[in-house]
Amino acid sequence: MSAEPTATADIPEHFELLRGNVGFGALIGPLYLRKPKEGRTYAWGFRATEKHLNPVGIVHGGMLVSFADTCLGALAFFAGGKAPSSTIDLASSFVTPGRAGDWIECTGTVTRTTRDIVFVTGRIYVGDRTLVDLKGIWKILRR
Q1: Fewest Cβ atoms closer than 10 Å to its Cβ: which of 95, 120, 123, 143?
Q2: Which residues, at least 6 apart from 41, have a Cβ–Cβ distance to it below 8 Å?
Q3: How far apart, in whole angstroms, are the C-alpha atoms of residue 121 and residue 111?
Q4: Residues forming beta bridges with residue 108, ordered by sequence position
Q5: Is 70 part of any domain?
Q6: CATH code assigned at 56
Q7: Rounded to a whole number, what is the distance in angstroms from the first to the last CA of the chain?
Q8: Residue 85 near residue 98 (C-beta atoms within 8 A)
Q9: Torsional class of 80: left (φ above 0), alpha (ψ -120 to 50), beta (otherwise)
Q10: How many CB atoms lie within 10 A of CB 99?
Q11: Dist. CA 102–CA 129, nearest whole Å
Q12: Please, which residues have CB within 8 angstroms of residue 110's CB and are 6 or more apart in sequence?
């Protein structure tokens, strides 16, 4: 699959184009967001295309970590009272590769928040197949 998804038929139900697909986000995207509703949590997603692949033909690890930083960083943003935050640490354990055409999602949970720090765990997956397990720490940047 070499073309970018152009039809909403390529995007699972309840996902909408993420606002802010500009700058770096535009380079790795388009990214999509599913807002919490009916017992679901936030989830982010993208359709893996040729531009996301490494020379071996699987989704590049740097793409997956960038995607994770975007998604889990958003959770830190909300946990920090909508204050900007900066990634201190993002540990990624790669489990299995993503492939072109995969709909790849990321979800996470804030496990602890202090006055200045947010701790988050997460997972990147395709269906029930885990691609990456994640743990991260974000610094809340007070204005």
Answers
A1: 143
A2: 107, 109
A3: 7
A4: 122
A5: yes
A6: 3.10.129.10
A7: 44
A8: no
A9: alpha
A10: 16
A11: 11
A12: 75, 76, 79, 118, 119, 120
Residue type, 47: R
Residue 3 within a domain: no
Q: Could you tell me which residues are beta bridge partners of residue 16?
A: 33
pTM (whole model) above 0.85:
yes
72, 77, 136 from 56: Cα distances, Å: 27, 35, 28
Tens of pLDDT along 83-142? 999 999 999 999 999 999 999 999 999 999 999 999 999 999 999 999 999 999 999 997
Residue with tokens 């269906």: 127
Q: List the structure tokens of 72.
A: 């889990």
Q: Please check whether residue 72 is in contact with residue 109, taking contact to mean a CB–CB distance below 8 angstroms.
A: no
Beta bridge partners of 106: 44, 124
Tokens of 12: 């699972």
92, 133 Cβ separation under 8 angstroms: yes
Q: What's the farthest any 2 CA atoms get from each other in the chain?
A: 45
N residues, the chain? 143
Range of the domain at 26: 8-140
Tracing tokens 């509703």 back to the chain, one arrives at 37
The domain total for the chain is: 1
